[in-house]
Amino acid sequence: MKMLDIFLLVFSSSANNEGNFYFTENQIGIYLMLIIPTIIMIALLFYKVGSSVNYRKNTRIRTEKAEAYQVVKIYVSRMEKLMQAYEMERTKLQEANVMLNAAHFRIACLKSVLANHQETTSFNFFEDVTTPEVLKKRYKLLSAAYHPDKGGNLAVIKLINQQYKAAALLHMASCNHFSS
C-alpha cells in the first residue's frame, strides 16, 4: 500500500463503524504502526539535528585545535632555530672575548716593556736648519714621510711636531733678538 492510501484509511471514517468508534481494530493497529515509527523518526531527527550541531561544534573545535597545534609547532621550530643561532653567536662572542683578553694581556706586556725602555729623543730633526723657509720645507717633508695615515709612526710624528714648534719658537726669538 502506498502512504497516501494508508493515510486515507486511517483518517477516514467508514460507514461500517459501529458505535462511537471512528477506527476499527485493524485501523488502530495500522495507526499505531504509523504513529510510533513516525514519533521515533521525529525523535531521531531531533537527536540527529542536535548531534549534528554538536558535531559541527566539535568539528570546528577540532579544526581550531589542529590549527593551534600547527601554529605552536611552527613557533617551537622557530624558537629552536633561534636558540641554535643564539648558541652559535654566544660561542663566537666567548671566543672573541678570549681573544680580546689575550690582546689586552699582550698590550699590557708591551706597555711594560716600553715603560722600561728608554726613549731616544736626543735626535733633533731640525738641528741644522737656519732659516724659517727651510724649517717649513723640512717639516712638510718629514710630516709627509712619517704621517700615520701614510704608514708612519704616531710617536715619531708627535716628536716631529714638538721639535718643529720648538725650532719655530727658537727662530722667532732669534729673529726678534737680532731686529731689536
Q: What descriptors fit this protein?
A:
180 residues; mainly alpha; Helix Hairpins; 4 helices; 79% helix; coiled coil
Overall description:
Among the domains are: 3-58; 122-179, Helix Hairpins (Orthogonal Bundle), CATH 1.10.287. 79% of the residues lie in helices and 0% in strands. It has four helices and no strands. It has helices at residues 3-11, 25-116, 132-146, 154-179. Helix 3 (132-146) runs antiparallel to helix 4. Keywords: Chaperone, Coiled coil, Membrane, Transmembrane, Transmembrane helix. Residues 76-103 form a coiled coil.
CATH topology of the domain at 122-179: Helix Hairpins
Low-confidence stretches: 15-21
Number of helices: 4
Strand content: under 5%
Order of helices and strands: HHHH
Number of strands: 0
Cα gyration radius (Å): 55 Å
CATH architecture group name of the domain at 122-179: Orthogonal Bundle
Largest sheet: none
Q: Tell me, rounded to a whole number, the average pLDDT.
A: 76
Q: How far apart lie the N and C ends?
A: 151 Å
Gist of the model:
The protein is mainly alpha-helical and 180 residues long. The longest helix has 92 residues. This is Preprotein translocase subunit Sec63.
